[in-house]
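Kindly inspect this chain:
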Amino acid sequence: MSAGSDDYPVDTVAQAWLVKMRGNDADALRGEFDAWLSASPDHKAAYERIAKTLAASAILKSSSRHGTAQTQQRSGRRQARRRWLSAGAVIAAAAVVLLAFGAGGTSLPGRLGDGSLTARAAEPLVTRRGEIRSFRFADGSTAVLDTDSRLEVSFAQADRHLRLAKGRVRLSVTKNAQPLRVEIGDGVVTAENAALDIGFEENGALRVTLLRGKADIRFGGAPETGAGHARSLPSGRSAIFGPDGKEQLPAASPTQQGSREWPSGWAEYRSVRLDQLVVEANRYAAKPIIIDDARTEGLEASGRFRISQPETVAERLALLFDLEISKRADGVHLRQR
């Protein structure tokens, strides 16, 4: 939870921790909580402030300021406090659910099918440009969300359902009574006990790569009607569907071969043109790498690159090929000296 907490106001995170540390998992979370608490004076101050606010609402019956002469007034105030505390608990619980999806693989509370809070409504998981974040679901499945991506989650008692709105995700799906269904564009991917990449290409096409296990893909037509094109995807293979829903022959490319490691932020290439490498790196760039001449674009590189750190990629290319590197307002420029 703490790894992804920079995305939320400190009071929201503190409120979530307050609920967590009063739950059954308090002992298991103690180390992570202590690390968050000591990371900043603001964290400790926010936690103590919220704890004090909640404690102040639970006035003891023995308080000399609230004796028997004020029973009726106390009763009205207690009802108001109960309403306030209930609303606060709902807000805090919602914050916990949201933050429990945070980077580092913290799981959602509860298990599928036991009636506990397990993201029954769509819970959007979002990454900003440059981010790669990992999430763990209540059923033990995991998702690694690539840069600038959005994954909507809906887990109910008898359904495991995701929708990839943009970007790319790597899923490791546990075996369960119900398979995991992932909507993407006009298609549905169904998998269990499998690992796979699902994502949008730069040209709008949809790519599904099965790393292990088995997955079924259907494009075109509503899944419940059985319409459209459906097939099973063998392990180790990819399928690409154009914006029109028609399957295309996957063309092997250096960038695809080198991107299997993308959840770690790295990519390794036997041989890749610099313009292709730059396209991959720019997916993570706040300011893009810009190659200023065609000769540099056609150069070929090999090796392992920290693709999620575009400026480092540019600096390494400049060193490898003795290029001139210039950081400007519109991006990082590379060109022949």
